[in-house]
Each structure stands twice: as C-alpha cells, then as structure tokens.
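Methods — Computational structure assignment.
A single polypeptide chain was analysed. Its primary sequence is given first, followed by the predicted tertiary structure written as structure tokens.
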Amino acid sequence: MGVGDVSKRILLGRKLRSSQMGETLLSKKLAFPVFASDALSSVAYAPDEIFIILSLAGVSLYAYSWWIAAAVAVVMLTVVASYRQTVHAYPSGGGDYEVAMVNLGPRAGITVASALIVDYVLVVAVSLSSAAQYAASALDFVSGHEALIASVLVVALTLVNLRGVRESGAWFAFPAYAFMIGLVGMIGFGLFRQATGTLPAAESAAYTIVEAEGYEGTLTTIALVFLVARAFSSGCAALTGVEAISNGVPAFRRPKSRNAATTLALLAMVAIVLMMGVVALGNLMDVRYVDPHEGDRLLAADGSVVSGSQDTLIAQIAEGVFDGFSPAYYFVVLATGVILVLASNTAFNGFPVLGSILARDGFAPRALGQRGDRLAFSNGIVFLAVMAIALIVAFDAQVTRLIQLYIVGVFVSFNLSQLGMIRHWTRELTTTTDPAERARMQRSRLINTVGLGLTAAVFVVIVVTKFLAGAWIAILAMGTFYLLMSGVRKHYDQVALELAADEEDKVLPTRVHAIVLVSKLHKPTLRALAFAKATRPNVLEGVYVATDPKATSALMAEWDERRLDVPLKVLHSPYRELVRPILEYATAIRRANPRGVVAVYIPEYVVGRWWEQLLHNQTALRLKGRLLFTPGVMVISVPYQLRSSELARERVLSEDQRVHAGDLRRGRAEDR
C-alpha cells in the first residue's frame, strides 16, 4: 500500500462494499442531529439578527421582537406541516426538486435546484462564520481571524463527511443533544430566576444604543413597518434546514417516510421553544445588541464608545443566567459553537444527495452521482466545501453580510414545492374514490395551500427588504446555476443524440491501414508489431520520424538485418518535431481512403513509481491527445511492463487481499 493509500485510509477509513449500503442508514436518534441541526442552529443567529435590525432605531423597538419571533414560529409550524406531506408523497429523496420537476415541469425543477444549491452553500458559510464568531467571544486570540477559523472548520467537516453519513451522524449526535440540553437548561433556569426575582440584567443593559444614520428620531409609519418587516425577514433564517429532511429521506431507516415526518415534528417543537426562549430572556435581561461591525453605536454609561467585540446574544444571556458558575456559561457557548458547525453538516448531507439526483437527471456532471470509498457522494461534498470556503473568504466571515444573501433561495424552493404539492393532491383526487383517502388528500392539499399563501407573503417581504442589502447576489447566483444546469442537460442530450446507434454503424470499413510507431528497435516495438500483425490489417507498416541522420541510418540497417517482413516508413522532420509528421501522415492516409480506418499502434512503458512516469511516455501522451481529435483514426496503446511495474501490481494485490478488522466476523474474508 502506497503512502497516498495509507493516508486516505487513515482519514476516511476502510472501503465499504456497495452491499453494505444498509449499514449506513440512520435511526431517528442519529438522523435528528444530522438533518435537524441546521434549523436548531438558527437559534444561535436568528434572534441575534432580529435584535440587530431593530437596534437600528434604538432600544425602543425591541418590544417588537416578541411578535416577530411568534410570527416566525407560525411560519415554521406551517412549513413543517407542509413538508410532512412531502416526505410521505415523495420519499425518494428529491424533496422540493422532485416535487417541482414532477408537478410543475423541468423549468420549475431547475429553479428549485438552483435555489437549493445556493442555500446549501450559504448554510455552510453562515453557520461556520457564526461559529467562528462564537469562538471569538470565548477566545480573544481568535478575534480578527474568523475567516481562517471558518475555513479550517469547512475542511474538517469535509473530511468527516467523506467517511460516510452514518459515521458523521455518530460523531455529531452528542454535541447536538448537548446544545439542546444546554439551552433548555439556560432558558428554564433563566425563567425560574425571573419568577423568583433573581434574574440579573445583561452586562450590556447599561449601554446606550445610538440610532443608525437615517433612523434618528421618531419613525414614520412606513419606515417602522419596513424595519419590522426587515427584522422579520432576517428572523426567518430560522426556517433554513427544514427542507433538508425531505431531501434526506433515503438516509432514514424503514419506515423511511414515517421516521422523517417524526423528525420534522420534533425539529419544529424544539426549534420554536429554543428561539422563543432566547428572545424572551433577551428582553427580560435588557440585552443591548448591535451589529458587531458597528461597535461605535454602542455607548457606555459615561458616553464613551464600548471598545472590543461584543459577545453574541446567547453568550450574554448565559453569562447573566449562570453568573457565579462559569462552567455552565462555557458549556452553553461551546455547545452553541459546535451546533453551528453541525448546521453546516446538514448541508454536507443534503447537497450531495441533491447533486446525485441532478446528475441522474442530466442537469449536473455525472461525477456528482458517483459514490466514494465510504459510499458517500464524495465529489458533491468536495464541491460544496470549495464553494463555501470561497464565500467565507469573499465576505470575511461576517454573518450580518452573509445573512442578507440567506433564505432567499429557501423560500423560492418553499413556494414552488407548495405549489407542486397542491397540483399533486389535485391530480390524485381525480383518480381516488375511497372517501377516507380523499378526505386525507383534501386535508393535505389544504395544508399545502395555507403554506403556499404564507410562504409567498414571506418571500415578498424578504425580496423587498433584502434585495439591495445583498439578496440580489443570491438571485444572480441562482440564475447562474440555472443557466449552467440547462447547459449541462443540453450537452448531455446532444451527446446522446450523436451516440445513438443506427444502421450505418454496422458497415465495416473498406480497409484498415495499420501503422506502428517506432522509436527504437527494441522489445516494446517488436511486441507492437506482433500485435498489429495478429489483427490482420490490410496494410501494415512501421513509421519512424527521422530527426537525426545517424540514428536513422542505424535503425534502417538494424531493420534490414533482422529481416522484418514489415516495411518501414521514414518521415523526415527538419524541425525535429515528432507529433506533427505522424499526425499529417495519418491524416493523409485517411484522406486518400475516406471509408477506411487508420490504426495507430503506440508502444508504451508501464512503470511502477510516480516519478518514472515523468521520464517516459510524454511523447506518446501528446500524440494520443492530438490523434483522438482526428476522424477515422484509431489509437491503440501496446503496453510493455518494466520490472518496476511489479511494485505497483504487488501494492494493488496486497490491498485487495488484505483482511481488515471484522472481515472474518462479517463473512468477507472467506475468499481470501
């Protein structure tokens, strides 16, 4: 086993057979942290964004945060109820994309896919940027290096997910449940202290918030409505990740649909409780919170600008609730940071599945549909990681800037999915006669209709309030992906049309003119001549490119001395080119006989060490690259194994015959 193979096995683990696919399926207790962590993690930044937007007009508008959080909770309940219908009707894992494709057509399907791709990339970028901010709250040396920390986290998550979905779920189950326990404990203890009159004010309660430019004084009704709507649209980031469960139904154990629906219901209950609890404690403790990058708007009691970075909302609440008991504070902050990392793991599980479905339908490169050594869609995981790192670096891991791009794509897919489900139930009702079944379908259609009305209204609010703030970038990205996927599908359709077999493909060529490339008269050349002769072409000749008169004369003398019954064609190259003369000669033969075939036999060395490949076969590679574009020319490689090739063969054999731990118990070592 080579160094590269050893490193790969250490990082990713041993290979899994295709027959082991069932071993990678998730139970509900593992599926919950894998697929629900995105929506749960929104508790760590959605309330922050509500407070940040309302703070533009000062502290007085914080009173609206209760109503905004309640409105977000209502939208979440409606969306979750709608997606419970989706996972039952479309359990194959296509989620919104499949619903739109089947019921609304390819254009709607590609639109949903484009929106989901943008959303998944933003999930990783926003979550890990927020996690880096939480790390900066607890560790001073991290401050100023958030983009680097977030990028490192992306790489770490990529490696974990390349090991397989089940293993990543096992790794992340404990942190996800620790986050829920930590926040539920913080909220419960905070409300208890409020009831007993011992809940302290937050550290920032003594600060004064300076209104942002343009928001000074009393707001007009229109400005107030716009600001509250903007805060609501930012708070709707809490809905991201809900669609991931509908895309990941195939990863659940049987019964898949029921387990996915149960996980959705549990997700809604937990996320709403945590979000409302954080907003409630933030108001009860008089938290003052502004954009961390606008610290000059936060003034201390003496009127001076508060220096240093401001702790996140949950960090401030935990510090006050658990004053005098720092371990609980650090537990909550650490668990929150970890759940933000897990949130991006939801995208690492959802996007590869979506990519594989798009590849299957011809809208994405087929490489996205290939499973890796650990039965994960490795190419999709790597693609997502690269896109997320690029976004993190471009926006310097600033959550407030990234959040403006967020959730636009989510609500595009929400709306088209709801519309598709309404058409699905309408179509099903036309063929169903059972009264009980019809009643169930009518109830499901009503749920999706209410969901469409609500999500459409929210989408309008999001576009109006976020377009100039950065949402236009997300819309532009969706349009770009739409054009790319349309182009990929057009290409695959064109290739399929060109490759379709017809009667002309049965016609044999009139003659085969075989040429064997000769550099020296040695074993590889003699083997290529023998192989070419065995194929019985109409014409067979050796071809040598003459660049040195002495070497040419020596070769011709040796050729005559060996009395080979194959003629030798010498192509003179005054400019010492090797590829061009052969290419021109093969083209001339083909032009003289358009219905014939020119077969070019190229002797090649087979070596066992990577550096040896750099010393051999370079001319052959260039020549093959040029000949492959020449119509009517067939290129045949004739390998000759050097002794070093045995090393490579032995490495492959040792890997195939190696008995891994547990193979005997699983019955995989019987044939070794």
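Note: Residues 1-12, 17-23 have pLDDT under 50 and may be disordered.
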